[in-house]
Every structure is written in C-alpha cells, then in structure tokens.
Model the fold of this input.
Amino acid sequence: MESNAVEFCWDAEMDRDATIPATDSLLFPHVEFARRPLAEKMLYVGRPLTVLQEDGSLVSGKVEVVCGENIFFSNAGKLELIHLRQVVPDTEFASSDVKVPFGNPSSLSDASSDLMFGGCEHQKLEAKDLVEASLPPVDIIKVGQWFELQDVRNPCLIRVVQVVANRGGLLTVSHGQRHENVFFTNERCHELGWAQRDLQKYTYEGDSLNLLNSARKNAVSSHVFTYSTLREHKFEVGMMLEVLDISNGGVFYAGYVSEVLSPYYFLVRVSQSIKGPAPEMLCHRSHPYIFPVYWCARHNIRLTPPEDYGADEFSWNTFREKCGLTKGSAPEHCFDLPRVQRKFDKLRNVEVLDVRTHDVMYPGKIVRSLRHLVWVHLCHYANATPPTVYSISSGLLFPCGFAKQHGIRMQPATRYVTMGPSLSGDRFNLRTLCTSRQTPVFLTPKKRFLSSVWLNSDLWLPIVYVRKSCFAGPFINPERFRQIPNRYRPGPMPSIIRAILSDLISSAYKPKQICELLMCAKDSTLPQMVVKARIKFKKHRTRVECCEKVTEFCGWLRGICILLDACPDLFGINNTGCESYCNTLREIPSMSTTAHAWTVNTHATTQKSIPRRMRRIVPGSSHNMPSVVRKKKPVIQIYEPRRPLTRAITHKEWRARSAAAEERKRGDSSCASSLDVLGSGPDAPRAQSAIDQASSSQKTNVNGEEEGLMILPLVESNPLLWTASELRKWIMKTDLSSVANVLEKEEIDGEAFLLLSLTHCMENLGLKLGPALKLNALIKELNNVCKERFGVHAKH
Done:
C-alpha cells in the first residue's frame, strides 16, 4: 500500500478513482464563448450582410447559421456557404457606387428591407470589427487596455480599470493600488462609456471619470462584453420568492424583495429569521439563485422555513402575514433562469474557481445536478465537507486542465490510502495457495481450486472495513446501518462491490432514492454494473459506474460515499480511525435527515398543497397524492339477464330499446287506470280477462324486441356437461354462428369451451382478432351463468 503523491496531477488523480473529466459544454458556457470566434456572437441569426462574390458583385442577404468562420448566407430564397473574409463592411457598402443586386425584391417585406438598408436596428460593421470577428474574445483582450467594472457590493458605483494580466479570460485588473480578479464574461464588465448612457443611475468612483477620455485610445473592444447583457427587471418591493443560500451549505429559504436599487438590480432578504437579523443578497433578473414560489415543491426539494416561524407547516400566506408583506408571489415571467433540461453525469471532474479571491482553483467532482444547479464536492479539503452548489452561469466552473494551461495556481486534492500496483501480478500469493486446474473427483486436491480469472488478473481485494462510527449521510438509517457486517472478507472485486452497494441500499430510509442517487446514465462510456437488493419482498436495482482495477477501488469507494453525502472514509482497507473528521459534517444542521434539501419526503407524509396551475408530478411525490377509497367488489354476484358483450349497441338499436321501454311503461299505467275504473262495475271479471290477454300480448312483443337485441341464449342445463353438438346448437343462437362449425370440428365440448382463452382462440382455432374477442366475451358470460346458477365454473 502507498499514499498519493504530494504534487497534484489530473491524470494520476483519475487513475486512482476511475473517473473522467467533465466534457459537457453546457457546464462551461463562458469558456466556450471565450474559445469560439467572435463572429458567432456578432453575426447573429437574421443580421443583414453584404457579401462580395467571386465575380466582384455585391449581394445582400441575411445570416442563417454561423460556425466558426463559415457562414450560411441566404439571398432571395437561396442558401449559400461563404467565408468570413467575403463579408463587406457596412461603411464600404454605403460609400460604394457599385450596383448591388438584391435578388427578388418582392420576396423581402418592407420591415426587413428597412432593417437591411436603413441600419437603424443593427450596429454597423466596420473593417476593424470584421478583423476581430475571426478571433476568439480571449485573444482580443490585451494587457494595458481599459474597460469599466461595477463594484461588487454597490453596482451603481463604476470604476475604470486597466488589464494587468489575462490568463485565459481571467483578468487581473487594477484601479490605482487595488487589484481584482474577474472573468471577462461577468455581468459587471462593460465597455468604456457604458455608464455615461445613464449618469442619473450610475456614478464613477474617484478619478475614474477623468481617466475615461484618455483610456478611450486603448479600450477593450465592445464586442467582447456581449456574452451577458442585463435586462430590466419587473420586481417590486414585497414580492415573495425562493432563494438558494450558497453560503449556508446550499439551503433553500423563503425570501422577498426588500429594496429596488435600479431598473437592473434589487436586494432580496433571505428569511432565515422573520424578526431577527437576516442576510440580504444583491440580485438581478438573470440571477441563478432566485426562483419563483413553489419551485422547490415542483422539483421535490426542501424549502427551509425561518427559525422563528413556529411548529406549523410552512404556508406562503402565513409567511406573508408574519412578514407584513403587501405583495404576492413574483410572477414567473420576472425570472430569466438558464434553461437546462438534462442532468449532468455524476462523479465528473471539474476545476472550481475560488469565489472570494478568484486567484486559485480547486479540484471538484459533480455529485448531482438539477436544471442549471450543480452540486460539487471540493476535493482539496482534508475534512469531510458538504457539497457546494454552483450554477452553470456563475462563471466559477472550468474544465480539467484550464489552470495548468493558463498558469493559475491549483490546490492539490487531499491524500488518502490506496493500493499501489503489483509488480509480480500476484498481490496476495494466490498462485501458491490455489490452482485453476481441475482435479478429478476421486483424487484429493492439493490446492484449492480458483478460476483463472482471479489468479491471472489483479482483481482480488483484501479485507474491507466498515467504520460505523463515521457519518453515514442523511439518506442512511443509522439503525439499519449498524446491522451490516463490520468488514467484508477478501474476495473478488465485483462480488465485494455488489455486496457493499446492496447493503447501502438495504440500510437506506428510501431504497428507491439511493438507487436514483447512485444510478448513472445509460450512454456512459465508463464500465457499468447492475446491483440488485431485496427488501421485504420488494426488489430494487440500480446501474452504477464501477472500477476495473484494484488500484482504483479505494478512490472509487470514496466517490460512492461522496454521492451519498457521507464521510469519504466510511469504508476502507485499513482498520484505523476516521481521517476526515466527519463529526464536523454530522453537526451541520443542513446535513441532517430532517433538514437536508434532498430528503423532503423521507419523513414527511404530506406536503403543502400547490396551486393547480403549478402542480407537476415529480419523483417521490406519491406521498402527496390524496388517498382514494376504492370500492370493494361484492362477495356474491347476482346474475341478471343482460346483453352479452358480443357486439356494440348501435344508435338505432338503443333508440328502439328506449322506445320499447317507454311504451311498456305507458301501457302499464293505462292498464292500471282502466283496472281501477272497471273494477267496481258489473263487468269486472270480463274486463280483467281482457287486461290479462293484453298484458300477455305486450310481453310477447317486448320479448320479440329484446330478441332482436341479442340477449344471451337460454341456458337450460349445466354447460360443463354439454357435448360438442349441444354446444354447436347453443352457439348457433348467437351472432357467432360461423364459429360453431370450427368448434365442432375441433371436438370442443362444454367444459373445453369454458377453458378457452383469447390466445387459444387466435392461435389454435385460427380466428381473427374481432371474432376472437367476441368469443372470449361470450365465454366469460357463460362462466358467470355457470357459477351463479349451477355453483361451479371452469378453472383456468
């Protein structure tokens, strides 16, 4: 066994824990913008362009797609692929006397032609702009150039700063004797003269206004700061919303707008306490850590109420009354959150920029993600720490190797005990104790048999110890965790991996949630393993990325503990104490089971009702669904003669049936009235006989009408005792007479007829789907008659 090297290297780190770097471009949109040519931002879709053709003529059209320096250009309904060097500046086109063919003028609307030729809606392209369009923004920014920077705490205060260093877009700027690090895609960075557009809202600090005129000679290009453009917000004081407090372990609180600073910025009070002191957060319309009301409930995330809220269940109406707010919840159209629909892969390595100094980076692993939010475990801490929440638009996440490429200081990851490579290939001397050659039964083996897979491959693990005194995470039940074994005996690595994961699933509060936390994507490029667990006659299974080498096992096992927010040293190959000091992790309030953001349905049986327009079905919301009382079927089913399900009732038949019923009711009422009148007269006996004859004839007519509606034929004897010929005669009375000959040919009697299923009717009797469904319905009706009248039925 050996310990990690002191110097940090991504390749060595990923060889120890069987992980790979994060490559999803959605995680690093600011880095992608810095690397791509500026033309993809300047030449947006629909922008009018003038292009120089090979024959020297000028053609005008609009941009469709830009990829690098190649542009798909549409003109008069035709799509052409051009290069960036063919684009003519708007100034040259305006001063040129060359006649420009614009294709079919009738194909262009008046509005589009005004935009194309007037130039009032689009910024004109100059020759300098086209030169910059072929370069990435990070190469355009030079040391010594100037731009405007908003203050971190007071965005209305503007400084004119100079670039001192450019490390891949991470700028070190100076304002007098003060130095600050900021990435150029931050919303606080602007071109020179940006604040002069509205001097009533912004003020320059110190001598920044005096530097403005002299700095214009060497200013950063305005096209560089087009990554993020703030829009005016529509928030008002008193509007309620949900806030993510990243400084407090990633806890979601209720909050409200406390002050509006400008049309672009406002303050949000994070309601950790209603009456006591509470922090305030500077926000704008696109701030990634503010959400509309009921966002947490829709995504099954815990919303932590204020400390002095009380023991009652949290309600927004009660919260508004206690805070004395006059406004309601902020409308959803006020928020401009990043739109991400898919989840990011877990345990992918990223580099995280320090949020305070912006001068050092830390190695991190993605734990989980939700929309644009990413939970990242920082690997440089020696103590066990909760994951930190970042947004993809925060500008703090970078791909692996960014710090080394641009000379940024990188903090090494913490060291832990691993298993080094084996020089001989036989780490535990198995070849001298076991053999892969099979011994005959009648001979006594000298060595124990072991498959050649485990003898020739380095896949045998030593004893794996379980430190039950460590913090097992908010998803694990401590009582169940104490019941798992204290150690796992030496054995093949796949078997031990399955045993450990199965025990973790079995000891969870909600095994299904553990399976979701550990599950990887189907299209993952890493090796995968399916793990199954059986708990109280219920099976659970999950798909986990696993390691393939013994040297990767210890680091991979730490990653599994990180996914569960547990102590990284919960499992180990050495029988020593915890080296991560997980007691500090256990004492954090947000890491307890009753307060963790991802354990909202672990103990709570119900959740506060969500308005109908906001309701969505999310994983784990089965506890919130109202209980439905199902009606029990009666024990004794009473058979009533009814039409069998052999064919659908048409509209004409239903109308005839209703008319017959009305006529029968009318006849009964007329007979009753006539009987009352004639009952007291001298001809009462003669009238009574006439009424009896009329009723008998009426019943005959009604029966005739009912026969036309195909009632189930009369069953006089037990169907189980019918012969094939008797069954044929009975079926001939229904509308399935064509099937009767088939049944008689196959020698199917009454008992066999009641045992037929839909599969038998289609495969063995050769019936099509329609007749087979009708025959199956007829069999069910006959089974009911046989059960209710004769007390027996066929057993399928």
In short: The mean pLDDT is 81. The longest helix spans residues 651-678. Residues 10-22+341-410 form a domain with the SH3 type barrels. fold (CATH 2.30.30.140).
